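Q: My labmate handed me this sequence with no annotations at all. I'd like to see what the chain might look like in three dimensions before we decide whether it's worth expressing. Could you predict it?
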Amino acid sequence: MVITYNVVGYPDTETGCFAVQINNAITKLVTNSTTFPLWSITLPGPAPSSGYKYLKLDPNGNTLLAENFTRSFLDPTSALATDYEVFDREVTDTKLPLVPLVYDPWEASKTKVFDDGVIATIHLTGDAGLWENMLMAPQEAQPMNANFRYINDKLVHSVDNITIGVSGKSSMEFNKQAIKLEFDTKVNQSFFSRPSVKLRSESSDPTMIREKLYIDMLNAVGVPTQQGAWVRVFMNSKAVGLYLMVDDIGNSFLKQTVHHGDPNVVRGSLWQMNAPEVEQQGDLRYLGPLATDYPKDCYKMKALGSNPVEAPMTQLIQLMKDLDDFKPLEMNGGEYWKSKLDVDGFLRNMAMEFLAGSWDAYW
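A: Here is what I predict for the chain of 363 residues:
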C-alpha cells in the first residue's frame, strides 16, 4: 500500500520546496511545470495513525516554517492519497450552512467551478510589466495574455494563453482591482463550460460575504442566478488576494443557467444599462421606435439574441414600449404581463432587490 501526499504552496525562493513530516521523518515533496504550485510525493506504507504535517524548506533543506497543527486521515487503513491541501491552512474542505429553501431551486447546468466549500487556488503567469500597468492604470490598461491554472481539493486544470483584463467601472477606483478571465472557445479553451468568469475584489465589503450571501438567497428563492465561490489568486507566484469568483453574465450564462445548458434554445438579447450623465440614464423610458431615439452610451448590447442585425434594439425597444403602454389603473396587470415577462421570476427578483438593496444586478 502506498500513500500520496499533496500540498499547494509557494516557497520563499525559486529553489525552495516543501516536505511532509511523518512520525518525525521528513521527506521532500516534488513539483513540475504542469502542476506547480502543487507538490506531491508517494510513500510506501499505510497512512500514519499519528498524523502528518507539511513543512516549508529553504534551498538547503532547512525548515523555514512548519504547520503548527497535525493532519490526519479519516480512515488511515484505506487512504490512498490526501486531498490537494493548502499549506498552513488546517481546513481543506467544509460544508457551508445552506440558506433555507423557500421555493424549489432553479436547476441550472452544473459545473465543478463553484464549490463554495473549498477555497481554490488560481495560479497565473504572465508579463510582470503588463500586469503592473493594468493594476496601476486600470482605466487605460489593455487586456493581456497569461497562463492559467486552477487547483481545488481534487483537481488541477490548466489553460495556456487566456486573456486577463480588469473588470467593472466604479470598482476601478479601488486599489484592489476586479479581474475578468476569458477562455477562447474557438481554440478549445474552456473552464468547465464557462468561457469567462469574473473575480470580484469585494473592495467595498470588508466582510467579503455580502455578494455570496445574496447569491445563496437567490438560489433559495428559486430564480436563475450567478454562482460564486472564493478563490485565492496568485500572479507569478506572488499573492494578489482573496476574490469571489462568479459567473460572467453573457451568452454562456444564459445558456448554462437560464436554459439549463440546452444549445438549441433561441435566446433573447442581453443589454447592459448605464448612466453616463445625470440626464442620461438607462432607465427603460420609452423615447421612440428608433435606436437613434436613445443615448448611445445608456444601452450597451452584450448579446444580439434573435434581434435583426440591422436593428439590434428591437426587443429592448418593444419592452420599453410595453412599459410605457401599461396603465395599471385601467388594465389587468397579470393578463397584460404574462405573455411578456416571466412574471413569477420577475417578482421574486424584485422582492430580493428591495430586501437586500441590490441596485447593481441583472434582470
